[in-house]
Amino acid sequence: MKNGSENTDASGEQGPAIPKWILKAFTRLNVAVYRASNGRLMNKLAGDPICLVEMTGAKSGQARTIPLMYVPDGDAFLLVASQGGAPKHPVWYHNLIAHPDIHITQGGARRALRARELSGEERALAWPICVQHYAPYADYQTRTQRLIPVFRCEPES
Question: What is the reported pTM?
Answer without folding.
Answer: 0.85
